[in-house]
Design brief:
about 400 residues, mainly alpha, two-stranded antiparallel ribbon, two-stranded antiparallel sheet
Amino acid sequence: MRIFIFFCFFSLFFFSYPAFSKVNNKLCFQCHKSNKNKYLHNKYIHKPIISKGCLECHFPHASKNEKLLKKSTNKLCFTCHKKLKNDFKSDLFLHKPYKEQACLRCHIAHSSNYNFLLKNDVKDLCFSCHKNLLVNKQKFLHKPYQDGKCLSCHNAHVGYDVRLLKKENGNLLCYSCHKRNKKFYDVHLGKKEINNCLECHNPHMSNNKFLLKNFEHKPFAEKKCNICHNQKDKSNSLCLNCHKNIDSTFYYFHNHALGGYQKNSCLICHSPHLGNTKILLKSSPKVLCISCHINAYVQKENSLYVHPKRDNCIECHKGHGANNPSMLKGDGNQVCSRCHKTQGKFSHPVGDKVLDPRNGQPITCITCHEPMGTNFKYELKLSGEAALCVECHKNY
């Protein structure tokens, strides 16, 4: 009798399990009827649904993950998409949703009418976050931008700079469409090496022909090229001869005029020809700062907690020089209290009369906080439970 019962159970397991493991989704769709129409009638279907069935990603009975997934969403995706997982080990910049491993922010898990199982058309999907690019009322539009082909220039997941450009050299990206022929060199006065196309041209839109930027350096606007180009001294003095009021902004202990630059350090950030603002910055402050301070940015890139204004460097830092550490616009209290009005009034004592026992310096907000990013809540440098406090309060 026992042998018969064992045989029955063995037969039930042996014959039913393979059939269930190779289920062609019909069993699942008996209950999930609405999903059958939703998943199988779209243009693009996720390959596992067709080739292996629902059980490739889902458990049939129970799971600690939502929707009975075998693993959390990001880990489940990376079991097949292994190349994408390796991107996290590279030195490339990661798209924020990708860095947060939020695959389903852009993709649909089962099927879609858009390629790559995207939730929407590429243009609409990108603009759902990058709303500042929705304003396309300017007179001239770059054709890839006009056609919504964001991925012509940008990668969706990783890139060579913070803009996720497809090529490490931005010029090479431009030259893939804009060929360097005789007309090209004639327009650029015969100059063979064009170092940065985006120094003069906007990549998306402009009110000027050829997508030229809106603000012109006065000598350039007046076509008085010789004012700058015929000078033997190419150092900062070339710029400061005209911009005399700027000279004093570098007279500080920490400044951007130092650093052993062999050439004119002004031209690292400012364009001598065209710009989107009156100060003729070559790009946004974030892009410019990262181009030099790449290690500082990447080091904090994966921190759990970062200051919400971290990407706008000049919100807290001066561009030319300051006597405060990190070229802050004030000491560690003055900068923070511009937004955090109550800090220093009821929290931990700060100021000249409260000295850090470790170095004898006045305690400020940045004694305990690291706004660029940390793994502790409130951007604390160490855990606020105890580790940070006992740095100074040894007796506790």
